[in-house]
Amino acid sequence: MNAYLQFATKEAREIVYTWRIWVLPAIMLFFAISGPVVARFTPEIIGAVGGAGLDQLVLPSPTYLDAYSGWIKNLSQITLFAIIIIYGGIVSSELRSGTALLVLTKPVSRTAFVAVKAVVNCVFVSMLLGAGTLVTWAITAAIFGPAPPGPLWSSAAIWLVLAILFIAIMTFLSVVIGSAAGASGGGIGAFVLLSVAAIWTPLSDYSPAGLAVHAAALAAGASTPSLVWPVVTSLTVSLILVAGAAALFRRKEL
After folding, report:
1. How many CA atoms lie within 13 A of 140 on its CB side?
2. Which residues neighbour 171 within 8 Å (Cβ) at sequence distance 6 or greater?
3. Alpha helix (H) ranges present in the chain?
4. Can you give the pTM of this predicted structure?
5. For residues 144 and 133, what is the distance between their CA atoms, to the nearest angstrom?
6. For 123-176, how does the pLDDT look when each residue is reduced to its tens digit (9 = 90+)?
7. Which of 75, 40, 56, 51 is nearest to 157 (CA)?
8. Rounded CA gap, 94 and 202, in Å?
């Protein structure tokens, strides 16, 4: 157990002392700060860009829900793409650098190597999401006045399940493909497939395909069907993917 904790600490230090501590936090912080401001001034921005040609266009007054929706939209698109790119080499980069061989000479099993990496990075993304959501809520309340936190935090929780799923997908692909670029390409393919699958209601309501759609609906204050099945299936698939990655990694030549 001590060796596993040491490896987890090593993973956390790699996040803190490498480029990873800047890229994803910077992206999420930017959207957390700018999202509510953009939501508040969207009518003015459209009017300024469109000029006299849009004088007859009447836009509804923005509300706190527009800020919440913008936050979740940015998470489900650009931030998720960043996660796919960043974690394309979550395992393969350790193999190329020789770090994996060094770690595995200590009492850390190959299964633990894969599982700890996935868990530590899920915790990292969870912390970033919590901080970003808090910033979004605070700025939204400052701009729009009363801003009930329920829709924002519930939608963020659903998006977190989606983020965990994609970290699991990238962990699996990183072991199978062995190339950061190839794994990232596979991750983008998975993103496209889930987006297309979400169009079909049964898949949207009972599988991971509906997570982004339901998160957006919650952020907009809309009612959603029970989210038990999408959450349960997503977490189950995540566990299967990490277990599969660990099983394949045990048979991989270092």
Report:
1. 28
2. 87, 90, 91, 114, 117, 118, 241, 242, 245
3. 2-17, 20-50, 64-74, 80-86, 92-97, 99-104, 110-144, 150-177, 180-197, 201-206, 211-219, 228-250
4. 0.92
5. 16
6. 999 999 999 999 999 999 999 999 999 999 999 999 999 999 999 999 999 999
7. 75
8. 39
* Cβ density class 156-190: b for 16+ within 10 Å, e for less: bbbbbbbbbbbbbbbbbbbbbbebbebbbebbeeb
Please state the separation of Cα 104 from the chain's center in Å. 29
Cα separation, 115 vs 121, in Å, equals 10
- CB of 125 within 8 A of CB of 83? yes
Supply the DSSP symbol for 77: I
* Among 172, 112, 243, residue whose Cα is nearest residue 103: 112
Scan for tokens 């009612």, then name that residue: 223
Q: Rounded to 10 degrees, what is the CA torsion of 127, 131, 133, 139?
A: 180
